[in-house]
Design brief:
Immunoglobulin-like, eight-stranded antiparallel β-sheet, alpha+beta, Plexin_repeat, about 1300 residues, 23 helices, transmembrane, Rho_GTPase_activation_prot, Plexin C1
């Protein structure tokens, strides 16, 4: 409901699609105008009043409605003179504010309407306007036709809509207060009507950092504008408001009109800004009207819980304690507009829900004496200010206000037992006096109890102070009216009880429970569970006399008083009479339950149905989902559907159908009631145990949300700052790159999961393996065997690579033949899938061949940058906290390894003194260095950083290993041994031991720590220990057995996702350098192996008449980056003599994924819900893709290699690796496969023509191996 500014003759109020004309005293209704069907103000749906603006002296009114695309009517009385659509907002949630003004002189003289409206919400164009028009929110319209004459680009819909609160005229300037949805900031637009609005200005407002404007009022003579501002955080419906969630601010209109630009560092731009400290802070303000009485500013304020307050400001604009003038019993919110009665200024109008009320502005009769009246300083009580006389009041009519309060209140905190003289301080809003309550001694260190004084309905700040200390951080205490009931749903239960009943009302969360009272007057206490301030639920208890309906009273228990609430009707339990089980679609089953009609209105969500049948000695269960419940004159049908597992048949003679929640079961032709007492008792006990905590949780959750908001702001700001400062966070020097020798590089590439032992010798098979026809036949035969697994294929290919390591020309010919054969297999299905996986011998052989031929390129061109990346990642990870148990870190690239539970930490610089070791006794090494550590580092982590710092400083390792040294804190003549675990380690209540950290020992910045020789045990940090990720409970027992309790800050993982981005930024230059070193062409030449194999693939595509360029691109990608480079990027331990941690593996996986995305031809459309590892490099991938395409094209454009060039390269590579491996061992492994599948290979050789010599050699090899085994057995037997 809304109303216009009242006049002496009449005033108008609108509700839905109706406009009412009322007497000023609300004594009667003069008339009503219906825009919809007569007598139906709620029709059409969505009809709302958007503007009621009286103007002129002849009872004229502008009325704007959501109907007809935002129509605006010009009325005289209730007579419509003209209409114009598309003026106000047509959206129910859209805002509209307008003001009528006059222009004098010139062609444009006349009366005009300045209107600001929201035509666009959520990116949807509405109100019949085209997009360009819908974005304009502020227009000037002539009252003659309401067509726009001016519009302004200063304010437009720009991704987020604007919400206008008011519009008013002051000193020929128009003011439009507004804020951007959803979170502000609040602003005001000022237009100069004298200048025909050529230079509108915009001023940003600040009222204690509150982002919403709720209500507005102007004091024109004093030049003030009063606004009610609210915190931008939207609290859940169940949460209670904070004591400071709203505030009243007064702004000087002249300052707003003449505001100048100021530079704002936080947004790096110039803005007009007006900052004001709140005049009054109060919870849940919703409306304001300001006026002046006897030179005093009086402010009337409405609240969202139905209060009308009066505040009087002194000459310094300081408020008194707000007076409650009126309270709406239903506690419905007061609408933003308040207005004084123009006939009798002793009354004020307020609107709430569907009512308008006329309230007296003062209760002067409440003042007993002249001094009381004077101290109140209420200018409406005129008798206080008469200097010659005053009245004697003999009869006082006190307004009775029943304010609910709890007698005893428990405060939870910490350190209460450290002080003896504790006081609780209660502070109301504005100028209200503080109340100080002496507590004396606390109950324990974390709890104190005090008696709460009576008070009125409001939110107060509560803090605790000791004798000489300041008050603690305040919490909010709420005085509310007594709980009351409005409705109950469902309004009936079955006699056996157990039905969930939801009770709706006001302040039901403060009730101590629900009581059921029957006609005999017996009371049964029932546990209730508040869902929010307006609803709670309970389980209906069982009642006697179940054969007939009965009505009981539902009461609310408030301390020791039972307050009448509502009626609950009991009906007999439901009766199920039959069922039908349909199995035609087995295993999908359909079940129909038939029950007698009743008045219970059972919903499908209130019952569960399941079927039991016997299968031999086992009892099988099938659960059904209830689809619907239909009712006909004879009975009700419950339709259920289910699916059974297994293939066994249902024995219908053993079928039993159970209906749970209603607590019935039945079997064929016999139906009986089964009460699940054990289940009920379990739930009852669980609810009783948790009930007393439910009220605390609501308050604690509100505090946690406030803390979360602060944490989010802090973390986002720190994350943004880190992005700007850490862009060059990469090591500059890392010493010599620890390359592995070729032998170990090849072994780790060929056999990533195996270790070979070279202690055998063998000189067989070599000639046979070098027979190309035999080798190809052997490989194809092996791959046709079902037991020749993928693992066997990879091992066979790796053994073959070692056996032919010095014969790369021959190995390359074999690779060509096998690749062509693979193409023949793939071409008939999907050629794009070729070489995508490693499921054949040739695919693994190609991987090994690339590793052999590119090892030199890897070492000379890519290796140094790759090592720099690994080093930079390690440095970045260790720069922040790392949980030593899980290896998760705050600085990471991979969300799965993100340590978001970390608390605050700081960096310390320690002076480290090393004991001299024999290796460095006379060496020129620095024995004293400075090392940076974190206060959250364990002692083991600190040791690792100290060791690394020693290497960086001296270029050599310390003489002892990590497990051979200890750390000792030096403090004057005292020393303190440091270790991860000692007698001071905290033991958490679940038995876990928290590892000691630098901060645990209280080590300060600049402290001296000595490294000395001391054997330390190698501890396996299993589930018995924790570091930075603590268990849910943090109750810690110290050595003496005392308990302390604390809480972690409320955190969510998403707060720290900026750490992924900052890590990416820090190493980005190295990643790009690495990628470009891979797809570069040094001296405009491609590595021989790459050029050769890419040309081979191009030739094969051409011979097979494959014209799709994507196919060849995919073949090349599957051959080189997927088969070789990704394997290297994810496994730096293949290339360097380093240990890869699981965390580094996770980060490199993200980089490797980005690398492969650069080669992909698929365009991925990523949304907000895409994985973070995809989003991190989403903007870089398009650039990389272009570089990859250019790389492939550059290779293809190079002159083709001659056969001699390729052979020369392969021969040189073969010579490099002579005597690297014992080839006989590899041949022995190959023979084991030929022995396993001897018969299959022999059969194939016999069938193929031209293999006679190979067949003869194959049989000879087997004979020699058998003879060798026999001889070996005889020697063993002889011994």
């Amino acid at each position: 409901m809304s109303f216009s500014k009242p006049s002496r003759a009449a005033w108008q109020a609108a509700q839905g699609s109706c406009l009412f004309e009322l007497e000023p005293a609300l004594s009667r209704q003069r008339g009503v105008l219906h825009l919809g069907p007569a007598g139906q103000c709620a029709q059409p749906a969505g009809a709302h009043s958007k503007l009621l603006l009286p103007y002129g002296t002849d009872n004229r009114l502008l009325a704007g409605w959501t109907l007809h695309s935002g129509t605006c009517q010009v009325l005289r009385g209730l007579t419509v003179e003209r209409n114009q659509s598309e003026v106000v907002s047509c959206l129910p949630r859209g805002s509209t504010a307008g003001v009528v003004f006059s222009w004098a002189g010139g062609d444009k003289s006349g009366d005009y309407l300045a209107v600001a409206a929201t035509y666009l919400l959520d990116g949807t164009f509405s109100c019949g306007l085209v997009p360009s028009q819908a974005k304009i929110v502020l227009t000037i319209r002539n009252l003659g036709d309401l067509i726009p004459t001016d519009s302004f680009d200063l304010l437009k819909y720009n991704h987020t809509p604007l919400h206008f609160v008011d519009a008013f005229l002051w000193h020929e300037h128009l003011f439009f207060p507004y804020y951007r949805l959803p979170h502000g900031p609040p602003s005001v637009v000022v237009l100069n009507s004298r200048g025909h609005f050529h230079t509108p200005t915009q001023v940003r407002l600040s009222c204690g950092c509150r982002g919403h404007i709720l209500a507005s009022s102007i004091l024109p003579q004093q030049g003030f504008w009063a606004g009610v501002f609210a915190n931008q955080t939207e609290r859940p419906a169940w949460a209670v408001p904070a004591w400071d969630n709203t505030a009243l601010c007064l702004f000087d209109l002249a300052f707003l009109r003449d505001a100048t630009f100021h530079y704002r560092k936080d947004v790096d731009k110039w803005e007009r800004v007006q900052q004001k400290s709140p005049t009054l802070i109060h919870s849940d303000l919703s409306a304001v009207y300001a006026t002046v009485v006897l030179n005093k500013i009086v402010v009337f304020l409405g609240t969202s819980n139905g209060q009308l307050l009066k505040v009087i400001l002194n000459k310094n604009l300081e408020p008194n304690c707000p007076e409650i003038l009126h309270e709406i019993e239903e506690e419905t919110p007061v609408f933003p507009k308040l207005a004084l009665d123009p006939v009798d200024s002793n009354y004020i109008y307020l609107a709430s829900a569907n009512e308008v009320r006329r309230i007296q502005v003062a209760n002067c009769s409440n003042y007993v004496s002249h001094s009381d009246c004077l101290s109140a300083e209420d200018p409406y009580c005129e008798w206080c200010h008469l200097t010659n006389r005053y009245f004697l009041i003999f009869h006082i009519c006190m307004q009775k206000k029943h304010i609910f309060r709890k007698g005893e209140v428990i405060i939870e905190g910490r350190n209460f037992t450290k002080e003896l003289d504790l006081k609780v301080v209660l502070t109301g809003s504005g100028g209200c006096k503080r109340e100080i309550i002496s507590v004396g001694k606390a109950l324990n260190d974390t709890h104190m109890k005090f008696s709460l004084p009576r008070g009125r309905k409001e939110a107060k700040r509560v803090c605790v102070s000791a004798a000489k200390d300041k008050c603690s951080s305040p919490v909010t205490l709420y005085y509310v009216s007594p709980p009351s009931c409005i409705n109950i749903r469902p309004n009936s239960s079955w006699a056996s009880g157990g039905r969930k009943i939801t009770l709706f009302g006001r302040n039901v969360n403060v009730a101590d429970g629900v009581v059921i009272s029957d006609e005999q007057g017996s009371h049964l206490n029932v546990s209730s569970y508040p869902e929010n301030t307006t609803s709670c639920h309970f389980l209906a208890p069982a009642v006697s006399h179940a054969k007939a309906s009965k009505i009981v009273d539902v009461l609310l228990k408030v301390e020791n008083v039972h307050k009448s609430c509502i009626k609950l009707q009991y009906h007999p339990d439901p009766v199920f009479i039959n069922y039908e089980l349909q199995t035609e679609m087995d295993p999908h089953l359909e079940l129909k339950l038939y029950k007698e009609n009743d008045n219970l209105d059972i919903s499908k969500n209130e019952i569960e149905v399941f079927l039991h049948y016997e299968n031999g000695s086992h009892l099988e269960t099938i659960r059904f989902s209830v689809q619907n419940i239909t009712k006909n004159p004879k009975h009700s049908t419950v339709l259920c559907k289910g699916k059974r597992e297994g293939q066994d048949k249902i024995d219908f003679s053993t079928v039993k159908i159970y209906v749970s929640k209603t607590l019935f079961f039945m079997h064929q032709y016999i139906f009986c009631i089964l009460l699940y007492l054990i289940l009920n008792m379990f739930f009852l006990v669980a609810f009783i145990v948790t009930r007393h905590k439910s009220k605390e949780l609501t308050h604690q959750l509100s505090e946690q949300l406030e803390l979360l908001e602060c944490e989010l702001r802090k973390e986002i700001r720190e994350g943004f700052a880190e992005l700007q400062m850490d862009m060059s966070d990469v090591v500059d020097s890392f010493g010599t790159v620890p390359f592995l020798d070729y032998k170990h590089f090849a072994l780790r590439t060929f056999f990533p999961e195996f270790t070979l032992i070279f202690d055998e010798s063998l000189t067989l098979l070599q000639t046979l393996i070098c027979n190309k026809n035999f080798l190809v036949t052997l490989i194809h035969t092996l791959e046709k065997q079902k037991t020749f697994s993928v693992k066997d294929r990879c091992l066979f290919a790796s053994y073959l690579t070692i056996a032919l390591q010095t014969k790369l020309v021959y190995l390359t010919h074999i690779l060509e033949v096998l690749t062509k054969d693979l193409m023949e297999q793939s071409s008939n299905v999907q050629p794009k899938l070729m070489l995508r996986r490693t499921e054949s011998v040739v695919e693994k052989l190609l991987t090994n061949w690339m590793s052999v031929c590119l090892s030199g390129f890897l070492r000379e061109t890519v290796g140094e940058t790759f090592y720099l990346l690994v080093t930079a990642l390690n440095q970045r990870i260790n720069k922040g906290p790392v949980d030593i148990i899980t290896c998760k870190a705050l600085n990471t690239l991979n969300e799965d390894w993100l340590l978001w539970q970390v608390t605050e930490f700081s960096t310390l610089t320690l002076n480290i003194i090393f004991e001299k070791t024999p290796d460095h006794e006379n060496a020129d090494t620095c024995q004293t260095i400075s090392v940076s550590v974190l206060d959250c580092d364990t002692i083991g982590q600190a040791k690792e950083k100290i060791f690394q710092a020693f290497v960086n400083k001296n270029g050599s390792l310390y003489g002892l290993q990590l497990d051979e040294i200890g750390l000792e804190l030096q403090s004057g003549a005292q020393q303190k041994e440091l270790s991860d675990i000692d007698e001071s380690s905290p033991i958490l209540e679940d038995g876990k031991t928290k590892l000691n950290t630098i901060g645990h020992y209280g080590i300060s910045d600049g402290a001296t720590v000595k490294v000395l020789k001391k054997k330390t045990p190698d501890v396996d940090y299993s589930d018995e220990y924790c570091h930075l990720i603590l268990p849910n409970s943090e109750t810690v027992k110290d050595i003496q057995g005392a308990k302390t309790k604390g809480k972690q800050k409320f955190k969510v993982k998403e707060m720290y996702l900026t750490k992924l981005l900052s890590t990416k930024v820090a190493i980005h230059s190295v990643v790009e350098k690495l990628f470009r070193s891979i797809w570069s062409l040094p001296n405009n030449k491609a590595p021989v192996a790459i050029k050769y194999f890419f040309d081979f693939l191009d030739a094969q595509a051409e011979s097979k008449k494959i014209t799709d360029p994507d196919v060849v691109h995919i073949w090349k990608t599957n051959s080189l980056p997927l088969r070789f480079w990704v394997n290297i990027l994810k496994n730096p331990q293949f290339v360097f003599d380093i240990k890869k941690t699981p965390h580094i593996d996770g980060c490199l996986s993200v980089i490797a994924q980005a690398f492969m995305d650069a080669f992909s031809l698929t365009e991925h459309q990523l949304g907000k819900e895409a994985p973070t590892n995809k989003l991190l490099y989403a903007k870089d991938i398009p650039l990389y893709k272009e570089e990859v395409k250019a790389y492939y094209k550059a290779i293809r454009d190079l002159p083709p290699l001659s056969s001699s060039e390729v052979e020369d390269f392969l021969i040189q590579e073969s010579k490099k690796h002579e005597n690297e491996f014992n080839e006989e061992v590899a041949l022995t492994a190959i023979y084991r496969y030929t022995k396993t599948y001897h018969e299959e290979i022999l059969t194939k050789l016999e069938r193929d023509g031209g293999q006679e010599e190979a067949l003869k050699q194959f049989l000879q090899v087997k004979a020699l191996f058998d003879e060798k085994k026999k001889c070996t057995w005889m020697r063993t037997e002889h011994c």
